[in-house]
Amino acid sequence: IVKTEIPTLSSSEVDLWRSLNGWPEFSGQDFVPEIINNLRLYDLSVSQNKGCYPGQETVSKIATRRGAAYSPVLLETDTMQSTGAIFIFDKKIGEIESCHEWDGVFYSSAKLLRDFRVAGMKITFLKDGKETSSNVRYYPLLPGSEVEKSLELYYAALEAFKKDDFITAETNLKQAIELNPKFADAYESLGVILGRLERFPEAIVLMDHLTAVDPSSVLAHTNKSLFLMKMGKIEEAEEQKSLATIKSFQKFGDEAKLKEQIQTEKKAQEAEWLKRENMFKQVLEIDEEDTLANYGLGSIAVERQDWQVAIKHLEKVIQADINYSVAYLALGKAYKGAGKKDLAEKTWKEGINIAAKKGDLMPANQMQFELQQL
Q1: Which domains does the chain have, with CATH numbers?
Q2: Contact (Cβ atoms closer than 8 angstroms) between residue 277 and residue 293
Q3: Distance, CA of 303 to CA of 294 (rounded, Å)
Q4: DSSP labels, 152-196
Q5: Is the model more confident about 129 or about 312?
Q6: Verdict on whether the full-model pTM lies above 0.70
Q7: How far apart are CA 132 and CA 182, in angstroms?
Q8: CA distance readout (Å), 39 to 42, 111, 136
Q9: What pLDDT is stored for residue 64 in this prediction?
Q10: Which residue among 18, 121, 142, 320 sits deepest, i.e. has the most Cβ atoms within 10 Å of its Cβ?
């Protein structure tokens, strides 16, 4: 019997992972007389779709309206932060509860005011008389899923392969497959490496595994044919070559079907747009300033990439209702499409502030993402 030691984490490592992922400690300190919407525990344990518990109505109302006034996020900074309140000018915007270093960056667990809880938002806050620049990050910072780890190992293997470090590449790919047994690219890459090392029987087994996880794979048969040819098994190699050809034709056939399906969906989408357009236009004949109708026509124009028409309608929406947060998202896209990047940036920044104040975090986060892509 071979004894294997199970690796253990120190208390400081556990505390680090707990903090960066927002896991409750269950030691008592996380359970305070406070509405659960203000705690990370809300994201981890509350379902709005099932169950019934005391206070559910209140919790649901807060969640479906503007969200909690203060709720946990991470603030990414260049320096270690002490616990306590943080401010912008004289306004308190949150409170830092802990701070940890990870990979040369400092992450503070903070309860932040809803206006600033937008992923990627840059905030310069004041604490203890000192200004600090930060980026807002959502939990969990380190999800650590097996699929993500397998991808990390896969890319590390490719880098090792480029440097002719076949041992490291093989080790990483085997670990990637162990973590994600359906990782087709890992099987294919490992098979190629073993073929390069003339370990053909092992490489062939991997190609069989690749066929099992991806029955449509052409490369599984192409590579297997090559390996069999190297081993002098000509007839078997020709058989695999034929299978590769058949699957290649099947793939082209599937692509043709896919193109046909896309065209069908496009026609259906266009018909739906025309139907909605007619409805919105009828509304505008009665009231040219109707926000819903203008937003609807503007959104359709964005989808069609008819930027000028989109701008015309979406500007009307914001003129009529300055708090119509989703209109800022669509208008920014229209400005960007029309080549007016400065206006797109200005619009999205204004929209983020409005959406965050309203608790509309979905459009706020989308606008923040669009800003980062400019």
Answers
A1: 11-137 (3.30.1360.120), 147-255 (1.25.40.10), 287-373 (1.25.40.10)
A2: no
A3: 14
A4: HHHHHHHHHHHTT-HHHHHHHHHHHHHH-TT-HHHHHHHHHHHHH
A5: 312
A6: no
A7: 45
A8: 6, 8, 17
A9: 67
A10: 121
